[in-house]
Amino acid sequence: MHNVIRVVHFDESASTSERAAYIDTVRIAAKELDTVGHFVAPTLPGVINGGDVLVHLRFPSAETAARDIGRFDATLRAPIAAYVDGVGYPASPARTRPDEPRTVYRVLLVRVNPGSPTEAVEEFEGDLLKMPGYIPSIVAWRLSRVADSVGRTEWTHVWEQEFTDHDALMGQYLNHPVHWSIVDRWFDPECPEFVVRDRVCHTFCAVDDIAIE
């Protein structure tokens, strides 16, 4: 499986009707792709560099994604789209709590400094993966390394989760001690462990089906 994420940032002058028409057009284009699953959704309040529309595409292979994504990206580059961030990555199986509801999909795109020691990168990845053990509202999760990146940043990692609800993401997750005492050090330039050198893309949307599999 090969996944593709696109985060569309609208021009601020775009009207409500233009935004709605754009989302409808992109949803039609996504249905025409040879995917095994997809969604196109407006982002929810609280994103950071998270754009206005979140697109998630699941392709059966990297070859299929490479064949189709250029045409799809051309659709995304409509006049009201100021720019698009995105990644492609091989999708390993997700970890889940299968009996819990999932209503919000969240993704964090980050760029780890290429000069970071291998041991530091692996410890950073390990700390991210510890979080679901402390935060029960994370009901599905997957951490992946990026195969290809588009936009203004050369992303290196994709940290995906599904949450029980929006309040859990904005409250329990962001305010949890494991977040600010263990994970934040990798993002804080005042900490010696600091490895994430550029802006992050913290974005999320409502989902009514399983996003991470």
Automatic annotation (TrEMBL):
This is Stress responsive A/B Barrel Domain. Residues 104-199 form the Stress-response A/B barrel domain. It holds the Pfam family Dabb. InterPro entries: Dabb, Dimeric_a/b-barrel. It comes from the Bacteria.
